[in-house]
Write a structure and sequence with these properties.
Helix content: 40-55%
Strand order of the largest sheet: 3-2-1-4-5-11
Oligomer: single chain
CATH class of one domain: Alpha Beta
Largest sheet: 6 strands, mixed
Order of helices and strands: EEEHEHEHEEEHHHHHHHEHEHE
Number of helices: 12
CATH architecture of one domain: 2-Layer Sandwich
Strand content: 15-25%
């Protein structure tokens, strides 16, 4: 196995980098990628910064949020990585590196839920991506989805269209004038992260017995379970004995959501092997080069070699 690797997990909320060689490993972080700017130069800049830090690596693995086929140019990045001595570059969507970091090169499904959410299922011959379509068109059950539902519930209670909820006090702490909240949020360029930040309050309120928050969390968990089942069905694994299901990311650390997710998956697949916990996307980025050629994942990894 190559002894020196540069692994990059490039997300919109932040970038994490790990350099590993015979002397050990080190990690650092950087601001997230910007989807309104060309992607490849941003990724090349991360590699350049490693070079500026005096690091070398024979192989580079990148998992990138929002990566499209048009931007999956591993050759461009291999040229950028020449100064660090790179002999290969492996580039993939971050759903693949999240999958590898959680389940390795095995069949199953991984639901990665944070501010957004994306689900990836892998079968014998194909993979299926479910959701991950952003806060406007998708991300059902994500942190943003939960936060948006919380704000909706608060305003319903304020209007008399819904029942009272402890979430009102949480939102009012940020917006004493509830009726002005939507104006401030709409004008905030960081509104997606800001709305998603209420997901924690929803989880806490649900755990404390707030009925409105509890229903929001249950609905979110069922959305995530539906994505997992849809992915497994599309790759022909939904009837497999002991199908492997992983829920990774901060949302699954909440007791109510985790419990309801497991219950919803079990209702559809009683024999599923379900585990919840943190993903290790940097492990996944480093493992891109080790994916077997026979794996269904292999066709979805862009590769360039010297």
């Amino acid at each position: 196995m190559t002894s020196s690797t540069l692994a990059i997990d490039a997300g919109q909320s932040g970038i994490k980098v790990r350099h590993t060689d015979a002397s050990g490993s080190g990690e650092w972080s950087a601001p997230g990628i910007r989807t309104d700017l060309p992607l490849l130069p941003q990724l090349a800049r991360i590699i350049e910064q490693a070079h500026e830090g005096g690091r070398t690596a024979a192989r580079v693995g990148l998992g990138v949020s929002g990566l499209t086929d048009d931007e999956a140019d591993a050759g461009y990045l291999l040229a950028a990585a020449a100064p660090i001595g790179a002999r290969s570059v492996h580039l993939a969507h971050d759903s693949i590196t999240a999958y590898l970091g959680a389940l390795g090169d095995e069949r199953g499904v991984v639901v990665a839920a944070g501010t957004g959410v994306v689900t990836l299922a892998v079968g014998a011959d194909d993979i299926a991506r479910v959701d991950g379509w952003g806060h406007i068109m998708g991300d059902a059950g994500s942190g943003y989805w939960l936060g948006r539902a919380a704000l909706d519930a608060v305003m319903r209670a304020h209007d008399g269209r819904g029942v009272a909820t402890a979430l009102t006090d949480v939102v009012r702490a940020d917006f004493p004038d509830l009726e002005a909240a939507y104006i401030e949020l709409q004008a905030d360029s960081d509104r997606v992260r800001r709305v998603a930040s209420y997901a924690r309050a929803v989880a806490n309120a649900a755990a404390a017995g707030d009925g409105v928050a509890d229903q929001i969390v249950i609905a979110g968990a069922r959305e995530l379970a539906a994505s997992a089942f849809a992915g497994l069905r599309r790759v022909g694994e939904s009837d497999a004995a002991g199908a492997q299901v992983r829920g990774v990311g901060g949302l699954f650390l909440g007791d109510v959501l985790g419990r309801e997710f497991v219950a919803a998956v079990r209702a559809a697949m009683p024999d599923a092997e379900i585990r919840l916990g943190d993903a290790h996307p940097l492990d996944g980025a480093a493992a891109l080069a080790d994916v077997a050629p026979t794996s269904a994942l292999a066709a979805h990894i862009a590769v360039a070699r010297v």
